[in-house]
Amino acid sequence: MFTNKRRQEERTGRYGTPRVQYLQELVSQFQNATNEETKERIAANLANFAYDPYNYNFLRQLNVLELFLDCITEPNEKLVEFGVGGICNSCADPENAAVITNCGGIPLIIQCLSSPVRNTVNYGIGALYYICNESNKEEIVRPEVVDVIKKYAAAGSVSVNFSNLAKAFLDKHVSQV
């Protein structure tokens, strides 16, 4: 459920931790974690906060979007999944999409399309759907990327999710000649 300032104050109470402080604590815990399982748990938690517009400014302020991009570069498939999931959850916001794009996120997201993890692929397609615009379309809508997305669009019998999301991407961003 989306939050607003009044609802957040009601949920937090007089002595609760403000959202930005809580998110900062999560970021610090992630940065100090040495255990992969702890990092996975925290990245998943941060990705869950990334869908709510109430948190968008906090995510930018605390460099959480960059943390998500760093997760995509890790060999740990769970961190990749949660990193691209956080990007997908947050990039419907144009400011977040710009941060992700300016930090070199497009090639990292494209890499996720070849992941063996279904969620990672779904999040990758979803993120590209939201990030793609006139200023970066050439970088995203390259023949090799479109070919992969077309294969997912044709895979309705294997995964309706992949197929529907891929078709939506193609309908929005790839002109049918």
Short description:
The chain has helices at residues 5-12, 19-32, 36-49, 56-61, 64-72, 77-90, 94-102, 105-111, 118-131, 137-140, 143-153, 160-173.
Description:
This protein is mostly helical. Helices cover 70% and strands 0% of the residues. It has helices at 5-12, 19-32, 36-49, 56-61, 64-72, 77-90, 94-102, 105-111, 118-131, 137-140, 143-153, 160-173. The protein starts with a helix and ends with a helix.
Secondary structure blueprint with pairings:
Elements: H1 5-12, H2 19-32, H3 36-49, H4 56-61, H5 64-72, H6 77-90, H7 94-102, H8 105-111, H9 118-131, H10 137-140, H11 143-153, H12 160-173
Helix pairs in contact: 2-3, 3-6, 5-6, 6-9, 8-9, 9-12, 11-12
Which regions are unreliable across 5 or more consecutive residues at pLDDT < 50? Answer: none
Estimated share of beta-strand residues: under 5%
Which structural class matches the secondary elements? mainly alpha
**Rg (C-alpha, Å):** 17 Å
Order of helices and strands: HHHHHHHHHHHH
Q: Could you say which overall geometry the principal axes of the C-alpha atoms support?
A: globular
Q: Sheet with the most strands?
A: none
Number of strands: 0
Mean pLDDT across residues: 91
Helical content (DSSP H or I, runs of 4+): over 70%
Number of helical stretches of at least 4 residues: 12
How far apart are the termini?
A: 40 Å
